[in-house]
Amino acid sequence: MMVPEQKIGIFSWFGFVLPFGERISLIQEAGFTGTSLWWEDEEEPFPMPKERMPALVREKGLILENIHVPWCDANALWSDDQALRREIIARHKQWIEDCARFEIPLLVMHLCDGENPPEPNEYGVASMGELARAAEEQGVRIAVENTRRRDSVDYVLQHIASRALGFCFDSSHHRLTDQEDFQLLRTWGDRLMTTHLSDNDGLKDRHWLPGHGVIDWVKVAEAFPRLYKDFLTLEVYPTPSEAEGTPEEFLERAYERISGIRTLSEQAQKSAQGMV
After folding, report:
1. Can the peptide bond before residue 45 be classed as cis, meaning omega within 30 degrees of 0?
2. By the 8 A CB rule, do 184 and 146 touch?
3. In this predicted model, what pLDDT tens digit does every residue of 21-52 receive, in sequence order?
4. CB 79 within 8 A of CB 43
5. CA distance 16 to 237
6. Cα separation of 264 and 270, whole Å?
7. What whole-number percentage of the chain has pLDDT above 90?
8. Dihedral angle computed from the Cα positions of residues 78, 79, 82 and 87, in that order, rounded to the nearest 10 degrees
């Protein structure tokens, strides 16, 4: 029995200033299976309300994998100030309702923001527990992304067992915080829901294409959960030299790089199963 190829995607904003519909068309023409959206209206120079985006994605024949919601004020999820928590929870509940309304299966969010995010605590668990229950009721899922605090995702998943709550693995954030310690993937691989794959120089979150930086993609592939079958998705922007080229050239290179990571992942799985 042939196992279908893993789906690959790229974030709808990939660093070239173009009308939304044109960017989506180029993504589809480059061979990607799906895309994901930043869940805010696009402003100048090509205005586009976010509510129009899901239909346009599907009209181009792409799968709308997820929305990424704004992370401003995410630290309030952990606050002991109930009014602050209620405000940020209400905002995320509205986005969960948006997912249900537009038939978007997954919401990606940050648990914290800024240079000095709060330590994980019971207030954050209560906040995320409420959001997980809201997601269950709406029939959608939430993926919390690993960011500056290396322990926040682990803490939330440890305390909340909901199958509507998992995580998004960001390879660039991981390299800046965890280096080559893949504890998060190894411990919570069964709750991995999506990816933000990009490379960096070990200093900043560059959003480079895989292969441009210092990330060891063989080690990433080896650490990836064997049972993960959802999207391998890029969150990338062009380097200055790539920005001088065309978006078509950049997307062609991006497709080649993510296809290479998919091959590494397939080889790692076969090796783990004693097939090679």
Report:
1. yes
2. yes
3. 999 999 999 999 999 999 999 999 999 999 99
4. no
5. 8
6. 10
7. 91
8. -70
Closest by CA to 177, choosing from 112, 82, 89, is 112
Q: How far is C-alpha 87 from the geometric centre of its chain's CA atoms?
A: 24
What letter represents residue 75's amino acid? Answer: N
Phi, psi torsion values for 161, nearest 5 degrees: -90, 0
- Give a three-class secondary structure readout of 29-92: HHCCCEEEEECCCECCCCCECHHHHHHHHHHCCCEEEEEECCCCCHHHHHCCCHHHHHHHHHHH
Say what the pLDDT of residue 275 is.
55
* Contact by Cβ (8 Å): 153, 163: no
Where residue 227 falls among pLDDT bands split at 50, 70, 90?
Answer: confident
Residue in 69, 72, 6, 73 with CA at minimum distance from that of residue 37: 69
Dihedral angle, C-alpha 74, 75, 77, 83, nearest 10 °: -100
DSSP 197: B
Instruction: Kindly list the distances between the CA atom of residue 156 and the CA atoms of 122, 124, 183, 191, 262, in Å, as whole numbers in the listed order.
Output: 9, 8, 15, 12, 28
Residue-wise pLDDT tens digits, 51-74? 999 999 999 999 999 999 999 999
By C-alpha distance, which of 130, 141, 138, 172 is closest to 65? 141
Please determine, for residue 232, whether its predicted confidence score (pLDDT) is greater than 80: yes
Among 200, 192, 179, 122, smallest CA distance to 156 is for 122
